[in-house]
Amino acid sequence: MPSSTPPNDPAGPTSLRERRRRETWAALHRAAAEAALSGDATASSVEAIAATAGVSTRTFFNYFTSKDEAVYGYTEPHVPTEALERMGPSGDPVAQATELLLATMRTSTPEGTPALRKQLIQTNPALGRFRLQALARSEDLVIEALESRFADDPRLADAPGGPAHALRMWASLAGAVLRHATTDPDHVPGEALTPAAVRRSIDLFHHLLRSPE
């Protein structure tokens, strides 16, 4: 089973073994991405990618479940502790949940590579499925995190269906906001969502909820 510790996790271990693991992950991703962009089918095999990165095929599958996953640079997302701790009783709950979900999604891809991912998706649009996969998995993780942090919140005590049901709705609304933000006129497919695009979707959500005067 591939390692689940994200290579871009700032809170992760910093031992020599972990640094080497991150270096191997990066080498495999770089080799896979470069091979995919080259258009050379021979260089794009798992065996060739592993050889370019200086590891065995067996090691490749310790990091990625498929060649496409290595090309995109996908890892299992996780909920950043600091992002969860910023959520509190005050403020806009939908905005807070959206920010938490977005922060969680961002852990599924290496930092500083939006231009590369854009180029890869333009070359192979099917790679875009990893973004949807990251969103779906991140929603599940955010639901678990919200249940852990807010299950006993008195504000949810009388929520229809119970607190857990309300928290799932909370996470689902955040997912809807982010999906809508990808349709923003200023959003460039393949690039990271901008704070402005996310903010406009949040504002539109609240606008639609307001009762007609």
Provide a descriptive summary of the structure in words.
This protein is mainly alpha-helical. The protein has two domains: 16-72, Arc Repressor Mutant, subunit A, CATH 1.10.10; 81-210, no CATH class. It is built from ten helices and no strands. Helix 6 (93-106) packs across helix 8 (129-150) and helix 6 (93-106) crosses helix 9 (163-181). The chain starts with 15 loop residues before the first helix and ends with a helix. This is HTH tetR-type domain-containing protein. Keywords: DNA-binding, Transcription, Transcription regulation. Residues 1-10 have a biased composition (Pro residues). Residues 22-82 form the HTH tetR-type domain.
